[in-house]
Design brief:
This protein is of the alpha/beta class. Helices cover 38% and strands 20% of the residues. It is built from 10 helices and 8 strands. It is globular, with a radius of gyration of 18 Å.
């Protein structure tokens, strides 16, 4: 099952993605591939992964030192090999990180590499959780063409909810196959902006109030695994249809 998390910056999308990964691990749900497709690359830190390797770093190193490519092997094939070797293998999940380029430039080559790698790697995992870039740019890159569940995160503001609606609309316009789309309201003590949320056409799956432990952990740069098991955020997630996915028979992933 492919689970993608999207939303504008600062809404808590990476925290939600990391929470999903923690729950999948705790449920012994099968093999999990965590994909950090956000150039800010915060997912690894939230998951407690140190010294994260990134696709961009690997590509930059090979570009600066092309002599390391073995004779008879193409540059693309060598990059693919090095990325697979550098996959961060953790207890309960593996992590693939896109990374940020050193200077301005097009992500086209990185996107193409990441797209092909995701397609090949998914055959070895039961679950994939993708933390997308803040905003809508990631959608136009179409790193993944088939998504089982898309969670669009908004804060409790009209601007945030409208951004969520645009992300949903863009996914439709780009003909990205999404089986289910959900809206998540973060940092909200109750359902707010009902008129705005209704306009999104999304199912309001989850409302997460301000959480002192989560906020303190973010300030101190702590891992999601440092939060208490009975934290209300995990409890609220476990009360949603997210838990229904465990009732389905696990299968290997394919991203056609």
């Amino acid at each position: 099952m492919i689970i993608a998390v999207a939303g504008k910056g600062g809404t808590g999308k990476t925290t939600l993605a990391a929470s999903f990964i923690r729950i999948l691990k705790e449920e012994n749900a099968g093999s999990v591939l965590a994909i950090d497709a956000d150039p800010n690359s915060n997912l690894g830190e939230l998951l407690g992964v140190k010294n994260v390797s990134t696709i961009v770093d690997i590509i930059d190193d090979i570009s600066k030192n092309p002599g390391q490519i073995p004779p008879g092997m193409t540059k693309d094939r060598y990059i693919e090999l090095k990325v697979q070797e550098s996959l961060d293998e953790e207890e309960g999940f593996d992590l693939l990180t896109m990374g940020r380029p050193e200077g301005p430039g097009c992500y086209c080559f990185v996107n193409n590499i990441l797209r092909e790698l995701i397609n090949k790697l998914m055959g070895s995992y039961t679950w994939a959780v993708i933390d997308n870039e803040a905003g809508m740019e990631h959608m136009s890159r179409r790193l993944v063409r088939n998504i089982d569940r898309l969670y669009i995160v908004s804060d409790a503001s009209a601007i945030g909810v409208r951004s969520a609606r645009r992300i949903s609309q863009l996914a439709d316009e780009l003909k990205i196959s999404v089986k289910e789309k959900f809206l998540v309201l973060n940092k909200s003590n109750k359902e707010t902006l009902k008129d705005e949320t209704d306009k999104t056409g999304l199912s309001l799956e989850l409302i997460l109030p301000l959480n002192d432990e989560v906020s303190e952990g973010a300030i101190k740069g702590k891992s999601i695994f440092n939060l208490k098991t009975d934290n209300s955020m995990f409890r609220l997630i476990r009360e949603t249809s997210f838990m229904d996915i465990f009732k389905k028979k696990p299968h290997k992933l394919k991203n056609r």
